[in-house]
Amino acid sequence: MTEAAIEDKRITLEEVTKKVPDGAHIAWGGFGYQRPPEAFAMELIRQKKRGIRVYTCGSEHDLDILVGAEVCLEFEVAFFAIEALGLAPNLRRRSQEGKVKFEDYSNLAMALRFLGGALNVPFMPIRHMIGTDMMEKTRLRKDKAKVIDCPFTGMSITLLPSIQADFGVICAQKADQAGNVQIFGIKGEDNEITRCAKKSIVFVEEIISNEEIRQHPDMTMIPGLYVDYVVELPFGSWPMQVFGIYDYDLAHLQYYVQECKTEEGWQKYLDEWILGVENHEGLLKKIGEKRLKELRADPKYGY
Amino acid sequence: MTEAAIEDKRITLEEVTKKVPDGAHIAWGGFGYQRPPEAFAMELIRQKKRGIRVYTCGSEHDLDILVGAEVCLEFEVAFFAIEALGLAPNLRRRSQEGKVKFEDYSNLAMALRFLGGALNVPFMPIRHMIGTDMMEKTRLRKDKAKVIDCPFTGMSITLLPSIQADFGVICAQKADQAGNVQIFGIKGEDNEITRCAKKSIVFVEEIISNEEIRQHPDMTMIPGLYVDYVVELPFGSWPMQVFGIYDYDLAHLQYYVQECKTEEGWQKYLDEWILGVENHEGLLKKIGEKRLKELRADPKYGY
Amino acid sequence: MEMTEYSSTEMMAVCGAHAVKDGERVFAGTGLPVLGAMLAKVTHAPNAIIIYEGGYVDTQNKDLALSVADSRLGYRAAASIGLIETLGFLMMGGRVDVGFLGAAQIDEYGNINTSYIGEFEKPKVRLPGSGGGNDIASSAGRIILMFTHDARKFVKKLDYLTSPGHLSGPGSREKLGLIGKGPALVVTDKCQMDFNPDTKRIRLKSVHPGVTPEWVKENVMFDLIIPNDIPTTAEPTAQELETLRTLDPQGIYLGKGQK
Amino acid sequence: MEMTEYSSTEMMAVCGAHAVKDGERVFAGTGLPVLGAMLAKVTHAPNAIIIYEGGYVDTQNKDLALSVADSRLGYRAAASIGLIETLGFLMMGGRVDVGFLGAAQIDEYGNINTSYIGEFEKPKVRLPGSGGGNDIASSAGRIILMFTHDARKFVKKLDYLTSPGHLSGPGSREKLGLIGKGPALVVTDKCQMDFNPDTKRIRLKSVHPGVTPEWVKENVMFDLIIPNDIPTTAEPTAQELETLRTLDPQGIYLGKGQK
Fold first, then answer.
1. Which residues of D are catalytic?
2. Could you give the number of structural domains in chain D?
3. With an 8 Å Cβ cutoff, are A189 and C30 in contact?
4. Is residue D1 part of a domain?
5. D259 falls within a domain
6. Cβ–Cβ < 8 Å for D100, D27
7. Are strands A52-59 and A72-80 parallel, antiparallel or unpaired?
8. Measured distance CA(D15)–CA(B271) in Å, rounded
């Protein structure tokens, strides 16, 4: 039998970020504190990208730094804050400056819009959002949602436009070089994001062998067929968490929320934590081995 | 802390089958040779149920015996044959007798109809079926499918009516007594079936502890929230297969296809293999330990 | 029963817990609702099943979570899936009995704003937005609202309607095909309110110890219905407080020493 | 190259294999298409990715499968998911290059019947139905049809149109928003046919050794386009045959000793 070469989709953070042009539309993975593409957000800032539009259910520190650095000022989104710690400080300030444009949806609405894109159908029906200002008040889209009479039941039903973004970006625990991805813990909307995007980028804590993937096909959440680039990047979601690998850095988040309440504080944070390090390795060095070790998850608990 | 009692949804094959009334609509799990509810089909026959309607992508020997015994003569279905062995013999004969009514859909159409039911929306869009006789030629439903102008793109798009059947019935490898289900190997449309049904019945090869479920939450495909009854029933899919547990009984399937080409042959099969045994335990005794052992899967390969 | 000192935040958490019945399927957001749901589960409602929108189903976490996606919720969950599962199949599927929500503003029908303060065109503050709030408010069997009392939160007209309460009154949810029955209870640090079953308008239900109905009436910006004989909310028991503090030993949601 | 005796079924499987290009994403049904796809993968197309509708993605099975859901396909698959994945996200998502299908009847535009023989109201034979056939025919990049040659299968008008070929000719698939480009090749045990790119009507492409264009013309029930200079289909090589027989050692699809 002829042996198939295992396609190698590995690439560095710097290189993959170069492939994202100004103005790109990105379906953004991670949910709340879990597996957000933090290192990617920081590299978008270092490379001075502009005009990005993000589609997501909800993200937190990762998107707030993009807003602070004015990399991304357009969002189709359901939630934006630093859960339990308060409003996202840069977002709050840039909003007051009138710089940020939101198209507001609910979490399920965003997840269904990704699902519709993954199925390659133009819309998905939903029984939510109807009756609220989210239906009418709009800033970015011509067609935010449509209410039709259901041809089967006669009832009103809301249709949401599907999303097929230029890029889908997620963080996960493991993948092989061909992009077969294992996700442990909640999946959020990441499965749908990788399936609806024109190109998908996956950041993983660890590259494993194709052989290991094939030993456990039930654990493959995202087949390599959907994945264009794989980046091995330990602590790629810091200061947030990755189930089973490391916990969030609560002290850093609290510091961030406090510091960035003013523009000066944000500029200082930006200079020190993002622009002041050459790359992700530089960031990890700055955080320090001691702190990273403290954040390492206890395998028994997953955090 | 107060300890929660772990709800016990276990029940016997006989008792759970009694809960299914004549005329019930059943979303039927399993796909092709994989994990069909064979023992349940046989018990429906023993209990002389009538007027059942089945919704499924495709099943094979299990549905053919239901047609032979005239338990179920109405189907909303995509596929009906014994793959690789030929047409389903009872179906072929009962169809010629004019007794069976089909509403024909494609496999994806049926899976999406279950997904729509699970989401509790009245329809799901699809880009398939359009342009064919499946759109117009109808036997069971007033509204088989509707074509609308997409309010976002202006293109024609087909809407399929969602399914929320009285019962969803699947076979799986493992569950705990509360109905948290682990499925290994392909899932077919079983995840959607259990989520769209008013009541779900799960047949498993093995009951495991709630503790084991909670050690591996990533492996729970169907949370107990969706499951009403759990039946522990080894070889519940015989003569078909369950990934990782046992292989199909090809000799029996070949015998079945050959034998049931005539009504006499079918009646003989029915008397010998279904009515002639008191229950599932009786069937296993008839098959014999030797044969069952031969069918056991090699854990390395899963078959 | 021995009385113990307690904070107003603890009072809210205990009121939230009391609103959960045993065996119910509970959808909890971060913050006080988590504590309320967890307290219910370890006291009078051991068979409550708690679901978090990130994908955790039937949780038994040992440590308190900061995020609805927190890994802490994954430890010993019965399943760990995704948003389509929790907000789609479970919530929109009509399988959730009770959902907890917060609010920046509510109106007399329990409609909720969590999106903008000020005009939509030029908002003063951008709030977190719907998140799963609209989904929960639309489809959970009933809704329990929890937030600290501030007159500016009880408005005649919302700056933005994010999540449906009883909309414009009886029948309006049904007309839109919403599955859930809407808000049933509002818990603040001063009182509890419920809704008149006929008019769907909010009314005072009980005042916490030391608060008068008059104070409440003055601290809402619409004309609150105040029935006769408003009872005083039962105080938390010593055991409830002890348990509650065990659930949040670091005072993340309960605060430290705060009254 | 040394010539080896081969059966007409083996000829079909080899023609099917030749139609797959390296690196393509291939959707295979049970029967001969499985063999064709597997043969391609172990010969000239090692990087082909094979998908089966039950949920198996990127398979490397060692034993031949009887069913598209067969556990044999699960061994060393890259993923093992479900129908919404394979026929939805992958197929309708436009991510599959080539799909194999069988047929009981086809017409001049490659439209397919796998549902009923006879009138729909009172059919003579109920066939298996669409299964995933309609899904594959609608959205796979191109379609390869494989079935044994019988004049009654090539009809002027189908008894039932299950799966779309080129429908009524140029532009008709596009008008309905179908993603795939439709049938590209028909392989029988007597010949290969393709479709005129301008008219989308079927035409003879090559005849297998020993078959004449005249025989084919007489053995279809419509007016087949027969271009000049019809070549003879290349015979399977000895190596292809050897490999093929290794894939089906028990002759499940190839038959035993059959010519």
1. 53
2. 1
3. no
4. no
5. no
6. yes
7. parallel
8. 46
